[in-house]
Amino acid sequence: MNNSKGGIYREFIKRPMDFILSLLAIIVLSPVFLVVAILVRTKLGSPVLFKQKRPGMNEKIFMMYKFRTMTDERDENGELLPDSVRLTKFGKLLRSTSLDELPELFNILKGDMSIIGPRPLLVQYLRLYNNHQKRRHEVRPGLSGLAQISGRNAISWEDKFNLDVQYVDSVSFIGDWKIILLTIKKVFVREGINSETAATIEPFKGAKKERIEL
């Protein structure tokens, strides 16, 4: 993987900026953390945090933290009910306001993630990417990214990955701050939270096979 793209900003400024911004955000938003944690515990039960392994830069696996938004309701066989059933009204509110993402600030502080970058997806998707889509792991995954301000869960997987790779090829200080400001706007407008056919987003089932010209 080529880690030279992005110049001085990518190599020497982006990570220190992530550390400072995430630390300041954790301090300033600490009352919000406390209130959300209490509400999650009251309305959804324990544990308050949802933890899941995700692939980061260079496909290194890390543990990502979020506030939980779903119940643990199961059917008679002990299997979890569909997302649409377990995602409560309160959970939908957390997702639409992106408050469920706040614990990821600690992932940024640790260096697992960045403020801006491709969103960290499921580990099982790694084997499904084509070579182009794998390039999304050339940078740290982000709290928000180009795909999130361009439609979030309302755009196709293919479009999402193309935007991720576009970001990898154009990392810049100005670009990151544009995404940060547009992310704040999107949070207030609450656009693209769900796909058109699912409560969250449909699972990724693999890259489309490249057409072979005969």
Automatic annotation (TrEMBL):
GO terms for molecular function: phosphotransferase activity, for other substituted phosphate groups. It comes from the Bacteria. Residues 14-188 form the Bacterial sugar transferase domain. Signal peptide: none annotated. The keyword Transmembrane helix applies. The chain crosses the membrane at residues 20-40. The keyword Transmembrane applies. Keywords: Membrane, Transferase, Transmembrane, Transmembrane helix. Belongs to the bacterial sugar transferase family. This is Sugar transferase. It comes from Peribacillus loiseleuriae.
